[in-house]
Each structure stands twice: as structure tokens, then as C-alpha cells.
Amino acid sequence: MIKELFKLSVRETSLHISQSTVEAVMKKKIDKCGCRVYADGYLGIAGTLGEPTASTWAQAEANLARKIPYPFEPEKNKQRVRDLRELKISDEEFVREMEDLLAIIRRENPDFIFSNKIKFIETEISLQNNAGLDYANYDLTVELALLVKHVDSVNIFDTSFISSSRTMEKEKIVQQIGEMLKAFNTQVQLPAKERMPVIIHPSSLLSKINESLNAEKVGLGASLFADKIGCKAFHETFSVYQDATDEKQHSSFFDMEGMVNPQDKVMLIEKGVILKPYTDKKRAQTFSLETTGSAGGSYDDVPSLGYSDLSIVPSEKTLQEILQGEQGIMVIMASGGDYTADGNFATPVQMSYLTDGKRLLGRLPELNISGHLYDIFGEDFVGVSEDKPLMGERALVARMKIN
Prior knowledge:
Elements: E1 2-18, E2 21-39, E3 42-49, H1 54-62, E4 78-83, H2 91-108, E5 112-129, E6 133-150, E7 159-165, H3 170-184, E8 195-200, H4 207-212, H5 215-219, E9 240-243, E10 265-270, E11 273-274, H6 281-286, E12 295-296, E13 304-305, E14 310-312, H7 319-323, E15 328-333, E16 338-339, E17 344-349, E18 351-355, E19 360-363, E20 367-372, H8 373-376, E21 381-384, E22 396-402
Parallel strand pairs: 4-6, 8-15
Antiparallel strand pairs: 1-2, 1-5, 2-3, 5-6, 6-7, 8-22, 9-10, 9-14, 10-11, 12-13, 15-18, 16-17, 17-20, 18-19, 20-22, 21-22
């Protein structure tokens, strides 16, 4: 009998921001533990908030009677610790630093009111068993999710500034917010073009790729890519990998089954060719596929195929170099759109700026962007920036229809 413990610990200090000042400070610490017992091809699980007790383990053993099949060997004799924490700061120091940041933002941007949240989040994710497995992943970030309203506006908010970092570079944040709000005060017209480079966070457009690379959908023929595995379907510079590298925040290097990939990633699309879907152990066995370590689930669930964390391989160019002197639309807020079943994408854009890749030239009116999956990542794909100009994140550039 193998006993295995999955543990997720989250410590959070959250600042509630109102009228550009800290109105309240909330702290919480949550431990979630899943006790797993493997025996005779079955899995018994019991979950608890807080540290597990003898009764939690007894319940997990008793749950073997439910005959939940799990015919796979748990991972054994592997050890690794990845500690991505960079900041060494107390909660009290964090609150003081953020109060100082807000004071500077208020002073330099008197025509705007800031609200919502600033968070200090620390996580520990671990997986251990009595067969020699001992994995632990630690992370700590500062997350700003500021809603911004002009003092003369009748809206609840007009724009937003969102960033997440393992460091706390106040000067950089102040500069980014200042540049954004200077552009906000400069209204510009939408260029008279049917198509333009759209600069957007990669996750905004990757959802259909993620859905279509799901091994179960591929295996059952329900995926848009079901008949395209091994075929070139996208631009030769477009490559996608399952990402568990330290680029991802609060995401462990191992999946819920303890699987780890070399260099913490595995290529799924390379140079436009769809290589394979992402899998857990069950789907890999069922459909005779390679296991990519993409099992997910809650702390007290049987590990199952999850929603994989994907990234696009960036270019070796900055956003300015990608645009090559052309102007593009930098999307800040876009909601209400999605892909259709056959891959057509459209969304209204509530807030965007015209940019040359180096600076924001002004605020654009509300608009709509659209395109087809095979065009966005095919002939219309321009690239992903090496630098991080989109509120501290890399920017995806693709030519899309504008109206």
C-alpha cells in the first residue's frame, strides 16, 4: 500500500483600495490536503482543510472500498524542490510599501481615482509519498488589479492596470501607470484600415488551441485538430508548449499525478505542425498517446485530465521590432467575445491604445476585433515579443479585422 499526500498552502494579504487609498487589510491562510491510498489497482482519497490527521488517512483507506480504479503506478524515488520566492518582506512592510506606491500614484495622476485590490500571495504546493516521492514548489508574488476612473467620468471605471510580479519595482509600476494614463487623456481616431496588428495577451487567444489539444477530445474525434495531428496547420514561426517553467506563477513543476517533463515543458505545436495533444496517464493509455503530465483536479479529486497551461514560444524581437514601424492596437480590456465551434473569433474591445511598440500614442474608441483561428496563428500571425510591454507581460501580435 502506497500512501501519498498532496498539499496546497496559500497565504494571502489583500489590500482593499478605495478612493486611491488602502481602506482595509485582510489576511488569510488556507491549507488544503488530499490523502491518497493506492492498493490493488484502486485509489482511496480523503480531503481536509488544515493538516491531515489519523482519521483523515483512515477515511482514505476506507474509501478504497468504493473501488475507484487507478491502474497506474504512483511516481517513486524522486525528489525536487523549486523555490521561486524572491521577496523577503513582512506583511507590515508590504502594506507600508503599497501605501507609499499609492501616494505616489495619487500625486502624479491627480485626475484619476484608483480602486479594487492589491495582493501579496505566497503558495506552497507539495506531493509526497512513502515510495520516495518528495516534490515541493514555492512561489510568492505581488499582484495589482487596479480599476481606474477619471474624476470627470460617469462610469464605474474607465480602464485598468493589472500586473503580477515576484519583485516589487515601484518606480517601474509608477512609470507604466503614468504612460498609460497620459495616453488615456489623448484620444485618437481608429486608423481607416480593415485589418491591423492587434497586440494582446496570449491567453486571450489561446483558449481554442487549449480546448482543441485536449487528448480526450482528440481521441474521440471531437476536437478541431482531430484529423490534423502531425500536420502543418499554422505559421512556421508559431510553436506552443505545455508550460510548467518558472515563467508561470503559482504553478507547480509537477502535475497532480507527480509527472514532470524535461526542462518543465513539452512541445505540442512546433513550427506550425501539431505534434500531439496534452494527456494524463489515463488518456495516454486509452488513446495510445505519449504522457505529457497534464493531470489536474482539486486537492481531494482523483487526478484527471486538466486544462493545460500553454505558452507560445516568443520571438527574439521586441514589440517595436515586431511592428517594424507600423502602428498597432494594444488591447487592455476586452470582454464579451469568444471562439465559435469552427474557430471563428470575435470580441468587443472596451479599452485599447494605439502604439508604435515603444510608446502609447493615445486612447482608441471602442471597437471590435475578429479573425479565424487558422488565420490568427497562420498567415496573420506576426509573433510574440521577447520583451514584456503589456503591463509586464509578453505581447502576442496578429493581424485581425477591425471595425
